[in-house]
Amino acid sequence: MIVSPESSGIRSVVAPSESSGIRIDVFLTGTEGIPTRSIAQKLLTDGLVTCRGIPLQKNYRVAVGDEIEYSIPEAKPCETSAQDIPLDIIYEDTHLLVINKPRGLVVHPAAGNWDGTLVNALLHHCSGNLSGIGGVMRPGIVHRLDKDTSGIMVVAKDDIAHSGLAAQLADNSMMRVYTAVCHGVIERDKLRIDAPIGRHPVNRKKMAVVQAQPTKLGADLMSVRTRSGSSVPVLQNRKIISSRNAVTYVEVIERLPKHTLISARLETGRTHQIRVHMAHIGHPVFGDETYGRTPHFATNGQILHATELAFTHPVTGQHMTHTAPLPEYFTNAVKAVRGR
Fold first, then answer.
1. H-helix or E-strand containing 160?
2. Is the C-alpha dihedral spanning 164, 168, 173, 177 positive or negative?
3. Residue 23 carries which DSSP code?
4. Rounded to an integer, what distance in angstroms lies between the CA atom of residue 218 and that of residue 197?
5. Model confidence over 107-144: pLDDT tens digits?
6. What's the CATH code, domain 180-205+244-306+331-338?
7. What does 248-264 look like in DSSP terms, one character per residue?
8. Which CATH superfamily is domain 9-72 in?
9. Cα–Cα distance between 169 and 65 in angstroms, integer?
10. Is 146 among the catalytic positions?
C-alpha cells in the first residue's frame, strides 16, 4: 500500500467480515502509515491504537465492525550519528538505493555495535533525506542481512518507497536469491523446504523450526482469593510457542567434496531462514557455528551471500533486478573446499 509522505496524524479503519479473529498487529500491517508488523506492534506498545477509546493489547483479535483508531507520531530526530563509511552502491535514485553490504557490517546499532553500522553510513550518505516511518527520522531499512552475511540490500529514502517495498516483502513479491556453501552433498538437484520458524524454545537468541500451536490464545480458569476472603474466577492465558510459515527453494549449483554449492530463493523472509532451514535438513551452511558445526578451517562466519534482488519500484512501477557478485572471502572458501 502506498501512503502519504505526511506520516503523522490520527487514522481510523473499520474491520471487515474477513478480518474477524485476526490479531490486531496483523490486521494493521499494510494499512496507511503502518507498512510492517513491527511498526504496528510499536504503536500498540505505546498505547497509540484504540477501539472505542480503549488502548488495545498486541494479542487483541478484531471483531467485525470494530472501528480501530491509531495515531502515527511525528518523526523524531535520529539519535544515531552520521559516519562517513564507504558504501558499495549498485543503484540509487531520489527514492531508494541498492547496496552491496560487506561481510562484518552490522545493519542496525545495538549493544556492542553502537556505531560503525550501515545506519550510520546511510545517515551520512543521505544527508537528512530520510524515511520517517516508525516514528524516527532514519534511513528506511526495509529488510536486514546478518552481520556475517554479505550481499545485496534495498534501502528506502522516503516514506512512499518504504511503504511500497515493505508491502512487497509482506506479499512475497520481492525476489531474494542467496548463494551458499553447505555441509554434505545434497543428492536432489532441487528441493522445496516448507518448515515454520519461530524462536528456539530454550535459547531465545536462536531461531528454530517450530511446529505452530493454535494461534488463538487458550485460557485456563483459575480461582483468586480476594482481600475479603472470597474466591473469584479469572482467566489465565496459557503460554504457547508461536511460529510463522517459512518456505525456501534450494537448487544445487555444484557438488563439492563433502559440500554443496547452492542457490537459495526465499518465498518468505524469516530471521535466519536459510541458515535454519539448511540445518533442519541436515546440511547447515558452512561456517555457521550457531546452527551448524565448526568448519575444518577458519571462515569467520557463514559462507552466505545475497546474490540477487528483484522488485517493482514503488514510485515508477518499473521492474528492477540487481545482482551482487560473489566476494573474495566466498570464492576463497569455495576454492579451499574444492581443493580438499
1. helix 159-170
2. positive
3. B
4. 21
5. 987 767 778 899 889 988 887 566 655 555 456 788 99
6. 3.30.2350.10
7. EEEEEEEEETTEEEEEE
8. RNA-binding S4 domain (3.10.290.10)
9. 28
10. yes
